[in-house]
Every structure is written in C-alpha cells, then in structure tokens.
Amino acid sequence: MIIVLRPSASEKDIRVLTAKIRALGLSPHVSRGKERTVIPVIGDERVLAAVPLLSYPFVEKVLPVLAPYKLVSREFHPRTTVVRTRGLAVGEKRIALIAGPCSVENEAMIVRIAKAVKRAGATGLRGGAFKPRSSPYSFQGLGEEGLRYLAAARDATGLAVVTEVLDTRHVELVARYADVLQIGARNMQNFELLKEAGMSGKPVLLKRGLSATLKEFLQAAEYVVSRGNDQVMLCERGIRAIEDFTRNTFDLNALPVLRELTHLPLVADPSQATGKWSWVHPMSLAAVAAGADALIVEVHDRPEEARSDGEQSIVPARFAALVRAVRRVARAVGRTA
Amino acid sequence: MIIVLRPSASEKDIRVLTAKIRALGLSPHVSRGKERTVIPVIGDERVLAAVPLLSYPFVEKVLPVLAPYKLVSREFHPRTTVVRTRGLAVGEKRIALIAGPCSVENEAMIVRIAKAVKRAGATGLRGGAFKPRSSPYSFQGLGEEGLRYLAAARDATGLAVVTEVLDTRHVELVARYADVLQIGARNMQNFELLKEAGMSGKPVLLKRGLSATLKEFLQAAEYVVSRGNDQVMLCERGIRAIEDFTRNTFDLNALPVLRELTHLPLVADPSQATGKWSWVHPMSLAAVAAGADALIVEVHDRPEEARSDGEQSIVPARFAALVRAVRRVARAVGRTA
Amino acid sequence: MIIVLRPSASEKDIRVLTAKIRALGLSPHVSRGKERTVIPVIGDERVLAAVPLLSYPFVEKVLPVLAPYKLVSREFHPRTTVVRTRGLAVGEKRIALIAGPCSVENEAMIVRIAKAVKRAGATGLRGGAFKPRSSPYSFQGLGEEGLRYLAAARDATGLAVVTEVLDTRHVELVARYADVLQIGARNMQNFELLKEAGMSGKPVLLKRGLSATLKEFLQAAEYVVSRGNDQVMLCERGIRAIEDFTRNTFDLNALPVLRELTHLPLVADPSQATGKWSWVHPMSLAAVAAGADALIVEVHDRPEEARSDGEQSIVPARFAALVRAVRRVARAVGRTA
Amino acid sequence: MIIVLRPSASEKDIRVLTAKIRALGLSPHVSRGKERTVIPVIGDERVLAAVPLLSYPFVEKVLPVLAPYKLVSREFHPRTTVVRTRGLAVGEKRIALIAGPCSVENEAMIVRIAKAVKRAGATGLRGGAFKPRSSPYSFQGLGEEGLRYLAAARDATGLAVVTEVLDTRHVELVARYADVLQIGARNMQNFELLKEAGMSGKPVLLKRGLSATLKEFLQAAEYVVSRGNDQVMLCERGIRAIEDFTRNTFDLNALPVLRELTHLPLVADPSQATGKWSWVHPMSLAAVAAGADALIVEVHDRPEEARSDGEQSIVPARFAALVRAVRRVARAVGRTA
C-alpha cells in the first residue's frame, strides 16, 4: 500500500501516521518529493486496508499495491483449475457446452430439450427452477418440482445439471438435485449465499454482477473459495452500459484479463449478454475466440411460448449449427469443442 | 402495449399475431402506416408482457405503455405514504434524520453515538450488525450481539433502530430487535429477501441497487408491498457511473422523478453517495433541496478507528452543524427538520 | 410515432393534439384503452419529431417507431457497402487489416513500420499526424510534416493511408495526403467536422464515441452520408463502462447489431478497446468471429519509446503472428483475410 | 509517480528501469516488499508520464501521484477565480443566473425572452445560434443571423450574451457578438476548439462531456487556460449513466469535488441535466445547495413551439418563481442571488 500525503501535511502528521503503521507491524518508507510525500508500506497490506486512512485530513490518497483477493489469483495457484462433474469439464483444452431452457416448464419439455442439446454436443444442461425476476408478477419458477424434472432429464441423458440457487435456505435442497450451483448476476454480492455455496460441496458457476468490476467479481469468488470450495467457474454474461439495442454489453475483454488474474475457468453466456436469439451465434464464436472455456446457451424448442427469455433462446437446430461453428473456431484458436 | 412490425411482416403474420392477442382476451388495433404497421393492444398489458413477442421474426419492437409496477405507483395511491415507527416519521413535511455509525462495534460506542445524534436532532439510529463486505477478509459485523447493542442504544435514547438484514434466515431475528429493516444496495434484487421483508411486519428501508434503473427500483419495492407491507422507504444512495473521485454518483434527479412516480417516501444517503466525509455536508443540503423526506448519515466519534467506512463518517459536532444547516434549507423549500 | 397520454388527459386535450397533428399533414389514430389513450400517428414521423410534444403536460411519453437515420440504414440500401481505396477494400468477404503506429514520429520509423505491416499482410497503414490528447502537455503530433511522412510510406509500400483529422480547417490539407480520413471517438459528434468530411471526396473511418449509443453512431454517419459521401466505415473501438483493468469496454455486440441496422462496413480496433498489447491478439480474433470486416491495429517496433500508446502497441513479429491467426479464424467463419 | 513491478521482475529489469528514470533527470527510490517491488520516483512526473512504462512486461502498474493539470488547480491558485463580463459575475458570493431559450428563433422572441429573464433577475442571456444536433435533419440554428439577434437582445437589456461555438472557423465570428463563448458537452474534447477559445480573449463556459471524468474535464479546461485565458467557468450538465427517465444524470457531487480541486467557478445546468421542465425547479435548488456559483436555465415563452428542447424549457413565470426560491436557498447556505 502506498500513502500519498497532501502538500499541507506536517512533519508531526508524518510522525503520527508512521507510528500508527509501525504499531500494526508494518514498515513505512517515507519518500519526500518536491510536491508530495509518499509512503510505501512494506508488509501485509490487508492489515492496513482495514484502517480508514482517508479519514485523516492530511492523507490525499491511498494506492493499494496488491489485489484484494488471494486464493483465486493465478499468482497463488499458477495452473488453470479444471472444474469437473459427470461428463462436464470446464478449463480444459476442450471447450464445454452447457445448454437448455431459461426455465424448467414441465418434465416433458426439459427431457426433450436435454436430449436435443446432448445430441448436438452439450455436456451440461441448464434450466432454472428458482427464477430471479424483476417483477413479482412474473413466473417465479417451479421450485422443487422443477429440480425433480431436471434430475429426470439428467437420468435420461447423463448431462450435468446446472441450476440457479437464490436463497441460502435452498442451498441444501438445490445441491441435492444439481451438479453445479449457479449464482446469478443479481446475487453476485449476496455474500451469505456465496458462503453457503462455498460449503455446499458442489461446483459453483458464478455470474458476474450487472455492474461488477472484475476486482469485485474475483472478490465474490474469493468468498466461495475461502470456504473450502475451489470448484468455481466465472461467467461473463454482459454488464450494464449505455447501449440499449442489446440487453447487456458483453464484456469479452474480461476473458483475457481474467485469464491473467485468476486460475478459475471461464464461461461466457451469449444469450443474456445479447438478449436476442439472432445475435447469439456470432457472439458465441467471439467468446470462443476471446478464450472462453465454456459457453452456456439458452435453447428452447418453442421460444414463442417460453415462460421466460423466449426472445433470446435459439431452437435446437440452430444450436446444433452453432456447435459445428464453435468447433471450427475452437480449432482455429488451438482448442477443440 | 404497442407492437411494431418489421416492414417484411406479411398479412398472414398479422393474422397469426392478432389471433394470439385475442386468445389472451385482449384487443389488437392494427394501424397500417406507410413504413410500418403498429398494433396498440387494449387490455391488461401485463398478460401480454409474459409472451416473448420478440421471438417472432416479424416483430421489430414491443413498446410498453404502462409501468410494470402498480401498488407502489402514485397513480394507484395518490397521497404520499408516511412511514412511522417510534419517533421516526418519514414522508411528512418535517424532514427526518437517521444517523449513526456504519457498523456497531461495541455497546459503549453505539450508545454514546446514539446519544450524540439524538441530541443533535436525529429521530432514527443507523448501525450495522450484519455487514455486506466486498471482501471475505473484512469485518463482517457483530451479528446478534450487535443487534443487542442497538436495542440498548434505543432503550437509552428512544431512537428508532434502522439496521440491515442480509439473509432470509435472519429476517425474523433482525425484526426482533430492529424498528426498520434495511435492505442494502447489493440486495436490491435479492427477491427472496424482499419477499421475507414484505412479510416481516416491519417498515423497510430499501436502498437502490448500484446500477438499478428507477423502474427496477420500483419493481423491487413492489415485491415488498405485494406481500402486504406498504411501509417502504426508497433510499437513493448513489449509483455506479464513470466518476471515480467519488465512491458513487449521487443521482438526485431520482428524487423529483420518484416523487412523480410513487407514493413511497424518499430517503437520501449522502455518506455512501459521496464516500468522503468532507462532501457529506453540501450533498445533504442538496438532497433536501431536491426533495428528500429523510437523510441517513454516517456518524462516528473516532472515524480514524472505525471498523468500516471511517473515511465517509462525520463526527458528532459536524453532524450537529449539518442539522442546523438542514433546518435552514428545509425552511427555504417550505419544509421543516 | 406513438403518443401516450396521461390518465388525466381530457377530451379537449385530445382535440388540441390531434388538430395539431393534422395541421402537420399527418393522421392521428386515437386508440382509447382502459388505463391510457395512445395515438399512433401515420405519416413521416420526422415532421413530428421536431415538435416538443412532451412540453404538453397531458403527454406522458412519445415513442418513435422509425429509426432517426435513413441513408445509412440497411432498409434504405440492402447490400453491404464496400469501401475501396488503393489496395484497401472493407466490406468484402476478405477481412482487411489496417496497421501502424499510433503517431507518426519521423519518416524512417513510419516507412520501416509500413514495410513490416505490409509484409505481414496489411493493406492499410494507420498513423496519426494530428493527435487528440487529453492533456495539452502531451505530444500533439507532427502535423503536416507527419502527413508528408505518411505519403512517403505509402509511396514505399502502396498501402492506403488512414489518418485522423481533428479540425474543420485541416480537412482539405489532410485529404491531400490521406486515402481515408479518420474521425476519432472524441469528435464523433463534432458535427461541423462530419459535414466537412462528407464533402471531402475521401472515404471516412468514423470511430464510435466514448459513450455513444449505436443510434447516435448511425446518426453521426448519416451526417457524412447526407453530404453525398457514402464511403463510410464504422469503427467499434470500445466504450466507457465500469471496468478499469481495460482502457475501454470492447462492445463486440455492436458488430452483429450494426450489421442488421446498416449497410456500412464494420471495423474493430482492439488496441484502443483493450489498452494493453497482450490483450490485442485474443480480442482481434474475437472481433473477427463477431463479424468485423476489418481490424485496425497499433503496431510499433519500439513500443517502450513510442510517443503515444506504446503500452497498447504490438511489435511487428506479433502482428505477423496475429495475421496468421486472423486467417485461421476468418476461414472458420466462412471468410478470408 | 509510483511504479509497481510484477513479482517476476528481475534485478536486471530493475537496473534497466532505474537507469532509464535517471536518464530523464528523475530519482527512483526502490522499495522492496515481500510481494512486490515498488519504485516511487522523485521529480516532475509529467516527464515520466510521456514514457509508456506499461510496455515493459515486468511493470505491473503505474500510479500517478500528481494531478495531470496544473494551471486550473487550486493548489496552483488558491483563491476562486471570478469570471466577469458586463453585469455577469460568476464565482462571487452572489449566485448568478443565466437564462434564455435553447435556440435563437427570431429577433422578436429573443428580445422578448431576454427582457423577461432580466426582469426576473438574470444577468446572463443564453441562446444558441450554432446548434449541435444529433440528427442532420434537425434545426441547426440561424448562424450569424442568430448572433445578430442576440446582440440586439443585449442592447435591449444589458444582459451578457452566452452562446455556443462549434467550429474553430467560427470562433472569431462568435467572439465578435458574444460576451461568453460556450463550448458544449460534445466538444469538451475538441482540443483544437479549446485552443482557439483560449486565444479568443473572451470568457469561456465549458460544459462537461457526456461521459467525461472530472480529471478529463479539468484537463480540457487546462487547454483553454494554457493558451492564456483563465476566464473559464466549468458547467456540470449531467452525465450519461444508466437512468433513462431523465435525459442525463445530474452529477451534483461534482460541485464540492471540483471546488476542492480547482479555482475555476462552477455553473450548473438543470435543464440539460434533467431533460424535463417539471424537474428543473427542484434540481436548480439542489445545485445551489451543493455549491453552484451560477445556474444556466432554459426559458421559452412558448415551449410547445420551440425549435429545440421545448420539453425542458420553463416559461418566464416559472423562471421568476424559481429565482425567488433560489434566493431563499442561497440565503440558507450563506450566499445571495
């Protein structure tokens, strides 16, 4: 951590501050410039991060040197983690495909769609039983009934089930049926849920918050990993920016940046990120080219009757065509799919 | 709801669509222009909102006419709601002041600060027992112990206690000690928590999410009210935008806009919105001038030792000066404080 | 255009409004719903767009049906335009590569880099002679001297020269030396400059503004085209959003969306969009997969001595490797490079 | 400036870097921590800012210590500058009022409105002769004819004329008629225009760009001041954020922050910042409470016929009521109006 003092800081101010720093077991290195005094502090900066240095009127700014997360960092763990459950493996040379409807609507539909996406090449099945909806009047999902249908679809196909959990009280229930717990964008900083997911024993697919920085995203993952669960996938699903033709702004830059910062494997969600079925194909390919380890895609066989997100769901035939295109792009960037 | 068709839409497409609309019990009014056909639909548009019209390739856009919330709207309930609990009343001509530390650190400190802010004119006491922190390594609050200290401070001062609840499992516990349940920005779309708060029997102070639109903010409030609890205060606490000198961007425009759209009373949080103690004073006055019904302000008597948010906390003497200034501005805009 | 009235609108208000609409030569179709009256208006909505309908207190909202641009729309001109000048062609099956330094620093360097990028496969040469810099104390470019060096580099290689123009007074001068006039992000809404560029007789590479919506981007292009110049390329170069690891947020969603909305060819700038040399390679491939017709890439042979943007420039050997990778991805998506 | 090295940086890397720093006449103070080596550099950091340090693979980040502007900083010039021209003074205890229509439409209207706002208490007259419009098909202003009408309105009232200049070629012309040159949000980084305005001999009202940070805003002002003109007013007019009920997000936090950073006087524009006439009144008062030295307000006597911005213009009677309210709030915060 580096502390920059205001020009008005006195020698006494410097003594007060350096005494405080030493009292915390750290070493201040006072460096007096012509216009500012700066104080790099040697030692574990997390100790100092807990002190509100800016409440001193003579402190102008505080510049952290280290990242505020550790277990998720590539510095701590240099090799990319591979998350594995059933046939799904995320983080390998082979790009994984997770597909399925936004919501589970009934048993027949989820089994039918699961078979279709499996045939096309998916190894994971998505489908929501508990749905976070902006309006209390929208369909909120089938709950445990939906989980049972997902399990039936898994039995019929062998696909790993990825489904969202919204409430700390449901973690145990969802973990009983699911192979992967999804934590949605709106819950990325629901810290109690992150802690529970970290203790669930199940892999976690963590979606980036609507306006979360990558630092916050990694801190959220750190919550899960710090509870003993390093089976975490990070999912870029678009952030909120200025554009309104698209539902979100797909921040694909995040993929190479996260690759550098963390060992956790990377998923991309082109359905949420675009909000429209016709843009899912090119943006899936872009995500693969940018370095995604997996795609999660909304597929529905009757999108115009879907109970949620029909406008961004592609039909199974389009998904099959997408998988073929993903394979070509994967090969072009030295991977497989 | 108004449906705009693509130029390529055929007469058959129009028949398919209007049949579907009629089957839902609504009336389509087809209006053929030179460049586009538009179809205003008469009837409860919430029925149609559940249909993914954009999944039809011949639909270009769907324009909602009505707001997607009802119970919180001023159209539904023309008079501003007053939230009352103990001596705290929010929504009256008199501007209410809620003040206290970011976190409860021990009993002596919360009682001491409660007495100080009460003396200065506050009628509500803020203080966190459960703290949402970006990092798992930051102080997470004292939990139930903190709630007991808050209750002690209330006993000592008569102030209404406002404290955050983070987890559906804690709603009952927090409601046992608190007068007002605060739902923080990061949980504004934690819908399960909103539902529980709606059933708690306690007034709710709902903070706007970091990048929530006002429409989403009102829909979140609708979750609470739709469970039978109309004692909801909406709190503008800054949104995430491009500026980084300040912790957040204080969207004071939200106050007159919300005043027009909703009957719920409006709170402003200049501490979170600025992130720095020296800017809290002018921005509190600005919030009052823009129409806030209450302010919620972080006050700490030793900010440089605060366990959270010390840099944005003001000392009791500054808070007392702020209250005097708020009174002058309140009078200037036809209110009191 | 569709006008939505407030619930309080009276029959007299409706008569006033419809009379005004008819007086403009348009036809109002009044449609009375239970909760709102809506008035679709038939006729050229650009006439009505000039009327401040929201200044009537009984008007709640005004919903445009048509896009506010025409000449640049795919509806007006269904086939993708190909911009051609010298060996550079943007908008064909073959993806074009424009490369070179941020700034022209001297004749030897621009000729040397031009030869290197030509050898690697580029058909366009970028290089700034007039530089828009946030600080008045930063290097502002060599001006006309820089233009002469660019011309020398073109003579030596045959590459088409793409260079920025900042000032209406320089359009003629820059057009004398350049093959393509670049209008930078900060000038996307410098409307006088757009008009001059539209009359220059030279192709224009128009960069998206830092926080421009796609609608505004297309309206800016409409300025150029409406002056008689349809040789316009649209360049996505990243927008300003919340992330700060990267210089900008690369909005690749913009590529498929623009492809649908406009016939103008699409360029992507991974150097500006990321701000760091090590992320240029994956994001170039992502842009190609998302549908870019051309890439514009910053290349410098001594980045650590570059007078601007050294941190986002790649060396010629990396550019050559990038071109090989672009070719593989181009083939995977049915194109060439 | 402080340079943070990657953990992988070798002793040789450190020698290369410190040699380079010394060659520039600066002193590196190498400080070796357990996890990172940091190098505070003593001396004029602007010299080092021109070096792309991040192009060295062993440099992790570069943290500037000083602001990238000087002449506009309060550190350089501690007292607030007062801009004066005719009866208009901005930066004094008395809050100034600048009012008038968005565009000059004809001589009679501008003279009539000028008289009305003068009567209500304004000392400045706004009105656009050259208009920056998103669409090429919108009214672009009357040009020089409009300037003549503004001069006539000044002759009739004595108000100082504030009008926008869009093009470097028009600076001399506009300066012949205007008392204050306005540079609009879209031109905040039109650096050639800033330079010309800096040499015009006229005070400048510089509007903040749509997504400009305060640092960029101050650097833009530095362009003007560095050409010898310190008569610059900074105008907060709303930034682009996520909210769409309002035209922009009024960043009133900017007022106390700028007050701390700069000696230039501060103007607020509640008309642009809200986009709707009914919100102009409360937000004007909020701006005064937050510390504005002047307001610039759009006033039109027939808003429903205005050729631009009618929906955000208030009528003269409302403006007179606003001035009375501004006076009350001004007094409440120790100022006058």
Mind explaining what this structure looks like?
- Four copies of one chain form a homotetramer.
- Chain A has eleven helices and 15 strands.
- The first copy, chain A, is an alpha/beta fold and 337 residues long.
- In chain A, strands 8-9-10-11-12-13-14-15 form an eight-stranded parallel barrel, surrounded by seven helices. In chain A, strands 1, 2, 3, 4 and 5 form a five-stranded antiparallel sheet that branches.
- In chain A, helix 3 packs parallel to helix 4, helix 3 runs parallel beside helix 11 and helix 10 runs parallel beside helix 11.
- The radius of gyration of chain A is 23 Å and the shape is elongated.
- Chains A and B meet through helix 6 and helix 7 of A and helix 6 and helix 7 of B.
Mean pLDDT of chain A, to the nearest integer, reads 96
**The CATH homology group name of the largest domain in chain A:** Aldolase class I
Q: Compute the number of strand runs of chain A.
A: 15
What is the CATH top level name of the largest domain in chain A?
A: Alpha Beta
CATH architecture grouping of the largest domain in chain A: Alpha-Beta Barrel
Describe the main β-sheet of chain A briefly.
8 strands, parallel, barrel
Low-confidence stretches of chain A: none
Estimate the helix proportion of chain A, in percent.
25-40%
Instruction: Kindly estimate the percentage of residues of chain A that lie in beta strands according to DSSP.
Output: 15-25%
